[in-house]
């Protein structure tokens, strides 16, 4: 049982690390397009890993309700498909409006 | 194990607070829309963690529904900002 | 055979919706089952042509190859996030963003969507727009190495073309 607790803690810790990296990238990067890079990739994986850790915890602690992990698997699939699509839609809208991307050596926006 | 879930929930809330700075400051509407999308994704993870902490299984349905609302909301915003109105 | 295809589409949509209902609710008493079946019937009548389109023959082979493509994709996602984490946490922030365009040989809608999703989930690139007739992609890259991995190596285009048999 202690081994399962260590595995769940490791998965939750890695998920939290990537979530924080996504937030720090949102603050540090100099331009809208680069900020979308940081959040659209790291935040998706961070949320996915946290939910995966809770899935493992459910299998070894509450074994009498087998339908709840199905909902969590749907949630992970949905996040992995929906977040990049929303990122792409925002970037396409910004490009058509005419926001200029940032090159190396310019001022922060 | 239960106290680890509480610590995870508090840390996710701190990450949401960091993203709130970009909502307030971001010059223009695009930065703010992206930051609100990120807060929505973190809220889904927070709802699932709190569902296990308080031992209520109905939080997962709310998380699934909020994921869909967040996705559709961001797509509608992007389409409106690109074309000026929502129908062709 | 428009009428036969419509009937098949309605029945297939009804069964998929009923499966999702039973899987997500978990209750098997009379009230929930009957209200679920009525809701699935109404949804199947209203939107059956969204789920089942005309060409449903080669889809079995494509689904099998898609399932084998997914583990390689997950490994690329993990690599991508380690790369972005390195660029965010480094004190000097080594980024050098640029916009590139390239053409592919994919013409079908679903294959172009899969390639755009894979480009958005891999290290350092996000799709900006896709031109559906000529298969042209415009991509924003965050540094020189991910841009080269898409322009020069072209591993991802070859893998997606193999899954969908170049279509």
Write out key terms for the chains shown:
heterotrimer, A: 109 residues, mainly alpha, 80% helix, B: 88 residues, 84% helix
Polypeptide structure, described:
The complex is a heterotrimer of chains A (about 110), B (about 90) and C (about 170). Chain A has one domain. The radius of gyration of chain A is 18 Å and the shape is elongated. Chain A contains three helices and no strands. Chain A is an all-alpha fold. By secondary structure, chain B is mainly α. Chain B has one domain. Chain B is about 85% helix and about 0% strand. Chain B contains three helices and no strands. In chain B, helix 1 runs antiparallel to helix 2. The mean pLDDT of chain B is about 90. Chain C is mainly alpha-helical. Chain C has two domains: about 50 residues, no CATH class; about 100 residues, no CATH class. Helices cover about 60% and strands about 10% of the residues of chain C. In chain C, helix 3 runs antiparallel to helix 6 and helix 4 packs antiparallel against helix 6. The longest helix of chain C is centred in the middle third of the chain and has 31 residues. The two termini of chain C are about 25 Å apart. The model of chain C has no long low-confidence stretch (mean pLDDT about 80). Chains in contact: A-B, A-C. Chains A and B meet through helix 1, helix 2 and helix 3 of A and helix 1, helix 2 and helix 3 of B.
Counting structural domains of chain A, the number is: 1
User: What amount of the residues of chain C lies in strands?
Assistant: 5-15%
| H/E element sequence of chain C | HHHEHEEHH
The greatest interface between two protein chains, and residues involved on each side, is: A-B, 48 and 41 residues
Overall structural domain count of chain C:
2
Cα-atom radius of gyration of chain C: 21 Å
**Rounded average pLDDT of chain A:** 89
Assess the beta-strand content of chain A as a share of residues: under 5%
What coarse outline of chain C follows from CA principal-axis ratios? elongated
- Fraction in helix of chain C: 55-70%
> Structural class of the helices, strands and pairings of chain A?
mainly alpha
Order of helices and strands of chain A: HHH
Based on CA atoms alone, the radius of gyration of chain A comes out at 18 Å
Individual helix count of chain A: 3
> Helicity level of chain A, as a percent range?
over 70%
Measured between the Cα atoms of the first and last residue of chain A, the distance is 51 Å
